[in-house]
Amino acid sequence: MSGGAISKIDGALIKHWLAKYGIVLAFVVLCVVLAFVSPYFFTTNNLLNVVRQTSINGILALGMTFVILMRGIDLSVGSVVACAAMVAASFATGAGNSSVLLPIVAGLGVGLILGSINGIMIARFAIPSFVMTLGMLSIARGLTYIYNDGMPISNLNPLYRFIGKGVVAGIPMPVILFLLVFLICWGVLRFTTFGRYVYAIGGNPKAARTSGIKVRTVTFTVYAISGLLAGLAGLILSGRTSAALPQAGVAYELDAIAAVVIGGTSLAGGVGSIVGTLFGALIIGVLNNGLDLLGVSSFYQQVVKGAIIILAVMIDRSRLMRE
Question: What is the pTM of this model?
Answer without folding.
Answer: 0.92
